[in-house]
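User: I'll paste a sequence; please echo it back and then give the predicted structure.

Assistant: Echoing your sequence first, then the prediction.
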Amino acid sequence: SNDGCSVSCAVEQGYSCAPGGANGDKCSKTCGVQTGVQAPEECDDGGYAAGDGCDASCRIENGWACPNNVCNPTCGDGLVLGGEACDDNNLAAGDGCDASCRVEAGWACRGSPSVCERCGNGLREGTETCDDPAHPTECASCTTIAAGWSCGAAGDACVGGPAAPAQPALVLLSSTSSLAASWAVPDGNGLAIASFELRYARTGAEANYTAVQLPPAPAHTLANMTRGAAYVVWVRACHAAGCSAFSPPSIAATVPAQDANAALGGLAGAISAAATSGVLGINVTNVSVEIPPPAPLEPPASASEGALNQSQVEALVSGLDPSEGLDIEAAVGVAGRTLAAGGSLAAHVGFEATAYSARSDDGSVVLRVRLTDTAGALLTASWAATTVAWAASDGTARAGVDYGPVAGGELVFGVGEFEREVEVALLASNPAYAGAPRTFTVALTSATGGSPYE
């Protein structure tokens, strides 16, 4: 061994052996002796170390060139070898790695092939997380995005605020003129959502929107919307770093039209909120109405038309209460209808009870309104249409927080109708309320209409 032919008769590294006849093969050292490149050598740098361009078998290593037996890495091939500081697979200047595979000023290059980046040039490159020279604090060192900020897909336009919410849903609450909007909470980019801004408008008139500032709960009920109108809503989220862009508008929801009697006959409220506990008390006040005397009867077209004979008049008057001070001359009979001349009858419009209580998770409270005589008995005879206004006002309970934000309305008692209902929505609180009962007042006013008994 060590003479070019090993004990196993193999050619040793750096040698070449030629047949020598009876005296055996003749071996001579060639590779690694740096006596020039001799076939089949491709190079000979006088050594056997790898990674210098010429390997132990005097073959040129990948990524190198050895003209005149002087080996140097090939710049521009994407391999960082030898004394190269970078190699970005090209020889162009101005991209961080120049044509001599040196890192250009202000740049940093990593990897093989090299990826070069320069923080502050407005381009996210290499390992940069972001690069926005307009916001160097929020995009610190091109590696760290501040909480509450995002820098977009390209990473070069940083803005403060949450992500924009997705399209909200808008639905009609059954049998009401209220619309319930809901949406998913968007990503706050490291900060909690602090509030939402909801805008709503009639379809086709979005420029005339109404804005509502909301807490971070992703739902809101729009009460008492115009019947027969279609609405859309859109929403954005806000926190300490700013507000998001607005969501796409919802699909339009239409509040159905309703006939006047049904609209005035009752108020239904419903809400979209988590079920929680709590107690609400409702106080009510009553209003009385004096029915004015009837209009004078028109005289018959002729002396005999509609007139009663003497015995009929006496029979009618005999049934009158003498305390009324009436006599035959004070009574007029026309076509079977008897009225007391100058008389007046009274009716009373009021709630069935003076106080009601309900739990907020009941969803609503129903208040029964009755039309009675002055003694409190429910009317049973025919009575002309009566209209009474109602209005809800805050006590310790607040509209829009504890109960539906109703502004008021009217109840209509049709002929022969003596009972109607007012339904007021109760809003559940979150977290659950466990304090003293909260109250609000519903009052009846401005009763009109009515007529004497028939």
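The longest helix spans residues 310-318. DSSP finds two helices and 29 strands in the chain.
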